[in-house]
Design a protein that fits this description.
82 residues, Thrombin, subunit H, 6 strands, Transl_B-barrel_sf, Gar1/Naf1_Cbf5-bd_sf, H/ACA RNA-protein complex component Gar1
């Protein structure tokens, strides 16, 4: 499990994360790819990455939530990639 970022807001039914700064030496450099499964700190699945946008060194990730996930409750939460 790898920390991918923090939810900064919700927009149009998506959670928007500010990704952690990329580390060129990271062994899992593909955790910010579209389709990545996203988990919360309780290891519950929150959704999947559907878009990556913004600056290359610290992009934003758009996550589509799974059914039953309350988006406003995620704001400020740290999320992880499986």
């Amino acid at each position: 499990m790898k920390r991918i970022g923090t939810v900064v807001r919700t927009a149009q039914g998506l959670a928007v994360l500010r990704a952690d700064a990329t580390d060129e030496d990271a062994t899992d450099a593909h955790s910010n790819e579209i389709g990545t499964i996203v988990l919360d700190d309780s290891l519950d699945e929150v959704g999947r990455v559907v878009d990556v946008f913004g600056p290359v060194d610290q992009p934003y990730l758009a996550v589509t939530p799974d059914a039953g996930v309350h988006l406003p409750a995620l704001v400020g939460s740290t999320l992880y990639a499986r």
